[in-house]
Specification:
The radius of gyration is 27 Å and the shape is globular. It folds into 4 domains: 180 residues, no CATH class; 170 residues, no CATH class; 106 residues, Immunoglobulin-like (Sandwich); 122 residues, Sandwich (Immunoglobulin-like). By secondary structure, the protein is mainly beta. The protein has a 5-stranded antiparallel beta sheet, with no helix packed on it.
């Protein structure tokens, strides 16, 4: 697998196909298709990037019409009817299951060194309302579906209610019918967390839920770990997923735990599903998981309960731990056939487990694409006329410290051939665009939000937000595409933090963008006073909690993972807040108290995160 110089494609040398490196490009580039809004126009793409099969085909066609990356032969990955590597044979004679190798996705899964039933993307600990550890994937119900479907299931990745084959590995969300004895009386229709926080009551469905939505990942109640999808027959995968038989045994073991049942309860069950409501928007007391998703947690169709963005797997970025559309095709290099494996069905592949199967066309899955042949470009990548950048031209937008990127922060790239526009051009509106004036900046193949594209005084630069998705990486590839011409990618380190204070020049000195609590600039005409809390505006402070969306305004208080140290006039200042400035993108704010005893004058302010200190910026003090 060879990543292109610009980080946009990956060449599979074995199968002679060139993949999109961003395997959820649709989340950021819909190629003119509408964004889904309830019962709006079709075809449409969900904000998460998932879509129905007909939309997936339309999205690929639109990508070809746009001559994306100089190609008009993009296609959906193919799956053959027969694959001797698959573990199962369906009612029409086609193969499915784990271990498939002849399909494009099956081959890719193996090439990446992934091993079923482990997920390609582990979901970190999370909180969704009163719940923890939700997985944006399929969950078992106890309700049987007509043969050969198996059991009904619910997707906490999209809100789809359907059915799945029993040997597949899905998650389990245990529940108890009714309200637990001794818990406070119900009040209203909202979710009510019981004392201790381990269970929550839904008065609409009259069900008590376990709040840990993936307890099996940390407590298997005696079930062994799966060595592979079928060994042993009853087992739990490392990520907590399991077959229906294993989920049933898991529930049984919960009820007999320590002789009194888990949490003292002996009526744990898998939830039910109303067979009369397949598809989307199934809620109410007959569909308890749907009621949780749509009504209690307020998610909409196509929205995962937990976002998994920017995850790097091998040379790919944005692989989703869910299902991807595939089309029936005789070979990996062959074209998609007009008809799927069965009426109203097409093939799918799960990067949550490595399972290959089929799905109804109306379901919302993710989309990857490739074209047959090696990478080509009408203009050689990195050649004459292409955007030219260097590591030293990547800078913190406040301090201009160069050579690295910091998650979520405002950065600047300087170079040549970056744009044919002139002047200072600012993007308007939020969220910020990922393509502006025919210019795109890619970080690990992901188009990133752009603030401005400038070409003034003989200098070209692009101001952009480093995507939050680079958190945890040690290095990232960055490239620029201008008017369809891609520049070569360069690699720069990713730092946890590199603070830079926004500043302005006055009288030959550099003063910080530091405001009084009234938002009046603290300048020489309005100096700060000892004991006063001032607002220091900066960037480069790194990860925050709760997590934010790249390009979107910070909503509410989002505090930095680590609180930096602030000195004013060489004296450490106490801080009351360190995080994103509400309503802004990539802009951080530190609320610091001016120490006493500094005297009068312009005092240097320095922010230190870890071992990295900002350049000083002056604050007038009286």
């Amino acid at each position: 697998m060879l990543l292109s110089l610009d980080g946009t494609t990956v060449y599979d040398t074995v199968n002679n196909v060139t993949w999109l490196a961003n395997v959820n490009l649709a989340a950021t580039d819909r190629f003119g298709l509408s964004i889904c809004k309830g019962s709006g126009p079709q075809p449409c793409v969900n904000p998460s990037g998932s879509m129905g099969y007909q939309t997936a085909a339309a999205w690929v066609n639109a990508m070809n019409a746009a001559n994306y990356l100089g190609h008009t032969n993009w296609q959906l990955p193919t799956t053959p009817t027969n694959d001797s590597g698959c573990g199962k044979t369906g009612p029409t004679g086609g193969n499915f299951g784990f271990g498939c190798t002849a399909s494009a996705f099956g081959s890719l899964w193996n090439a990446l060194g992934l091993k079923a039933p482990n997920t390609a993307v582990a979901i970190p600990s999370n909180t969704v309302g009163p719940f923890s550890n939700f997985q944006p994937y399929l969950y078992w119900s106890q309700s049987g579906a007509p043969p050969p479907a198996g059991n009904f299931t619910f997707s906490f990745a999209t809100g789809w209610q359907g059915a799945n084959t029993l040997p597949n590995l899905l998650y389990a969300l245990p529940m108890i019918p009714g309200k637990l004895t001794g818990t406070p009386p119900a009040n209203g229709n909202g979710l009510q967390v019981n004392p201790g926080g381990q269970t929550v009551y839904d008065p609409v469905t009259n069900i008590t839920w376990l709040t840990n939505a993936n307890l099996a990942a940390t407590n298997t109640f005696g079930l062994p770990a799966c060595k592979d999808p079928t060994t042993p027959a009853i087992c739990v995968a490392p990520d907590g997923a399991m077959t229906f038989a294993s989920a049933s045994q898991f529930i049984g073991n919960m009820n007999t735990f320590n002789g009194t049942g888990y949490l003292g309860q002996t009526d744990w069950q898998l939830p039910t599903i109303d067979s009369g409501c397949p598809g989307y928007n199934c809620a109410g007391n007959q569909n308890p998981m749907g009621n949780l998703f749509y009504d209690q947690l307020d998610f909409s169709q196509g929205t995962p309960v937990v976002a998994a963005s920017g995850i790097v797997v091998g040379p790919f970025i944005n692989i989703q731990p869910y299902l991807y559309w595939s089309c029936e095709g005789a070979t990996i290099q062959g074209a998609c056939q007009a008809n799927g494996p069965a009426p109203n069905f097409e093939y799918s592949f799960s990067f949550g487990s490595g399972f290959e199967g089929t799905d109804l066309l109306a379901n919302d899955l993710y989309v990857a694409a490739y074209y047959v042949g090696p990478p080509t470009s009408t203009t050689p990548i990195g050649g004459a006329g292409s955007p030219q950048i260097t590591a030293s031209g990547i800078a913190n937008a406040a301090s201009f410290a160069s050579g690295s990127l910091v998650p979520g922060s405002i950065a600047t790239v300087f170079g040549t051939n970056l744009t044919t526009s002139v002047g200072i051009n600012l993007a308007s509106g939020l969220p910020l665009p990922t393509r502006f004036l025919n210019v795109a900046v890619n970080v690990n193949g992901l188009p990133v939000p752009i603030f401005a594209v400038d070409n003034a005084a003989g200098q070209q630069q692009i101001n952009f937000q480093t995507p939050w998705q680079v958190e945890g990486l040690s290095v990232a590839a960055i490239s620029v595409t201008s008017n369809g011409v891609a520049g070569a990618a360069i690699f720069v380190p990713v730092l946890n933090a590199q603070p830079g204070i926004f500043a302005y020049s006055a009288g030959g000195s550099s003063f910080g963008a530091i405001l009084h609590s009234s938002f009046q600039l603290a300048d020489t005409s309005h100096p700060a006073s000892a004991g006063e809390t001032v607002l220091i505006y900066c960037t480069g402070l790194g990860p925050v909690s709760p997590a934010q969306q790249s390009g979107s305004a910070a909503a509410g208080a989002a505090s930095t993972a680590a609180t930096p140290t602030v000195t004013i006039g060489g004296v450490t200042a106490s801080t009351t807040y360190s995080g994103l400035a509400p309503g802004f993108v990539g802009l951080y704010q530190i609320n610091a108290v001016v120490p006493s005893g500094l005297g009068t004058g312009n005092k240097p302010v320095v922010i230190t995160a870890g071992t990295i200190a900002s350049d000083p910026a002056l604050l007038p003090v009286q």
